[in-house]
Amino acid sequence: xxxxxxxxxxxxxxxxxxxxxxxxxxxxxxxxxxxxxxxxxxxxxxxxxxxxxxxxxxxxxxxxxxxxxxxxxxxxxxxxxxxxxxxxxxxxxxxxxxxxxxxxxxxxxxxxxxxxxxxxxxxxxxxxxxxxxxxxxxxxxxxxxxxxxxxxxxxxxxxxxxxxxxxxxxxxxxxxxxxxxxxxxxxxxxxxxxxxxxxxxx
Length: 202
Fold this sequence. Notes:
The protein is an all-alpha fold. 66% of the residues lie in helices and 0% in strands. It is elongated and about 70 Å long.
C-alpha cells in the first residue's frame, strides 16, 4: 500500500485525517503515531499492533503490542487508572511487589525486559555496583525486591559479581601488574548489569 492508500484507509475506516506525509514520517521513524493512530494503522494494514513495533522496550510499547487499553491493564494489576497512566508517561514504575509480578505476567515480560520497561536499569546498575564493591549480602533483599527472581539465584549472582570484581582488583595490585590492568575493575563495573544477567541466565 502506498502512503496515500494508508492515509485514505485511516480516514475512511476510522475518521482520522492523517496526510500521506505523516504516514511516510511514521515509516521512516521521524514521527511516532499516537496510541489511537497505531491501533487504527494496524486495522488498516490488517495486522496486530505488535507487528508494527520493532522491539518493545517501554511499558506503553509492551501494552500496545498486546492491544491492551491503559485502563484495562491498570484494572488487572490493581492500580488506579490515573496512577498507572502517570507512571507510564513518566517511564517510572512505582507499584508494589505483587503489582509488579502481575504486570510482568499480564505483559509476558521476563525479568530483564521488566526492569527495562519499568525504568529500573539505572537503579539496578547502581545496586549491583554497590554489591560488587562492598558487602554483597546486604544487597540480596533489595535486589530480590527489584528483580523477580528466586532469592537463591540472586544470592549466587551477587556473590559471583563480588568475587569477580575483587579478583580483578587483586590482579591490579599484584606485583608486575601492567598499568592497563588497573582499568579492569572500572570496566567490569561499567558492564555490571550485563554480568548480572549472564550470571542469572537471562
